[in-house]
Amino acid sequence: MKLSVIGCGYLGAVHAASMAELGHDVVGIDVDAGKIELLSSGKAPFFEPGLPEILASAIASGRLRFSTDLSDAQGSAVHFIAVGTPQRKGEQAADLTYVNAAVEGLIPFLTDGDLVVGKSTVPVGTAADLAEKVSAHSNALLAWNPEFLREGFAVQDTIAPDRLVYGVPSGVDGERATEILNEVYTSALSTSTPLVVTDYATAELVKVSANAFLATKISFINAMSEIADATGADVTKLADAIGFDARIGRRFLNAGVGFGGGCLPKDIRAFTARAEELGRGESVAFLKEVDSINLRQRDRVVDLVVNAVGGEIYEKKVAVLGLAFKPDSDDVRDSPALDVAVRLHGLGARVVATDPEAIPNSRRLHPQLQFADEARLAIADADVVVVVTEWNEYRNLVPSDVSSLTHGRTIIDGRNTLDPVAWRAAGWTYRGLGRP
Ligand code: UDX
Prior knowledge:
There is one protein chain. The chain is an alpha/beta fold. It has helices at residues 12-21, 33-40, 51-61, 97-106, 126-137, 154-159, 171-184, 186-189, 200-231, 235-243, 264-277, 286-308, 336-346, 359-365, 375-379, 392-395, 399-403, 420-425, and strands at 2-6, 25-29, 64-67, 78-81, 115-118, 141-144, 164-167, 195-198, 317-321, 350-354, 370-371, 384-387, 410-413, 429-431. It folds into two domains: 2-198, 3-Layer(aba) Sandwich (Rossmann fold), CATH 3.40.50.720; 203-436, Rossmann fold. The protein is built from 18 helices and 14 strands. The strands form three sheets. The protein has a six-stranded parallel beta sheet with strand order 3-2-1-4-5-6, sandwiched between helices. Strands 11-10-9-12-13-14 form a six-stranded parallel beta sheet. The protein has a two-stranded parallel sheet with strand order 7-8. Helix 9 (200-231) crosses helix 11 (264-277), helix 9 packs parallel to helix 12 (286-308) and helix 12 crosses helix 13. The site of uridine-5'-diphosphate-xylopyranose (UDX) has 20 residues, from helix 9. Uridine-5'-diphosphate-xylopyranose binds next to helix 9.
């Protein structure tokens, strides 16, 4: 099929390349000329495992091209909207400027029977508004098809998603939109991927409620880690034990410095703001608590670091291992790891931060920080080491190998990802969150 993908960020670039990989003929469109130039030459503008490979093969096959010109969407039968919906400056709500601009800009190039497919995460009610705009100016249809991809696994999650959700209009238009989407996703559907076909509002809510649930799960275990700290209990064992209950499950029960990234934090805030607009703020008021528990984890990690050097952090060298909001990503949007580095720097510590992929993005936002290309360089002569992103490289550090680098020999495990027994046996003082 001929597809266009409007917006070539973390979501759109992966979607465009993956759809071409599956055999579709795709044009990816973005207003950022630098990004389009990189993508056209087969280079990913951000770190995402597997993306450079599929970009190169799809471009070589002639099925994938990129453009800055929305008129290049003309001729495609399906148009995916994959632009960002960031948090509005100084507010909790989502900023729909880019979604509105993408749809309005696309309308003149739609032809009868085209399908516009929203993938961006939007406040409930957005799809119905956009559908009106689309139908007022063309004989095209609109569907909402939320994306659940995880950064670091984005290619795999796009090519073989764990479920597909279509929000479609009622009646024959809905049947037609469903048929078109089924054709787009033939490959996933042929492997019995679960499919939920529903109305716009439900499809929009599926996405935000899934992220709200995941955020709640993480904040729940972080709250338990605070209680564990107060009682000498071990939150990692507690998570293992409750996780054996199939109704609870062990995933997303890792206590630590908390969640970040381009989705979970802004999605729970936008959801709260939308619920308040709908007069149902009370229903999701708990999400404010989820957010504050999450932000508290950063204070806890900073406090652990300060206490580790006896309460006076000024001029002490702190090695910060990790800047990305999670491993296998260079994304530092709302990253707790980067925030911890910035806060320690603000307290007067000599912070040397490192990350396998996220240094360039971190440096752009916080040029005041000092960066080291390798963990060993960051750790050298540090008074205290703090792990805030659980890259394998840091999880696999052998304590005895790095012992000679520093006299401090104090490690704060902001992700509860290291083996306390091994570190203590090598003479280190180890502290995690909610771990004795
Ligand atoms: C998330 C959703 O998982 C995905 O379905 C949605 O489409 C977009 O948002 P992503 O932002 O890539 O994906 O990251 P995810 O893997 O969900 O992790 C989010 C944050 O939670 C990270 O900062 C991670 O470190 C943190 N986290 C995750 C924890 O602190 N503890 C856990 O147990 C799991």
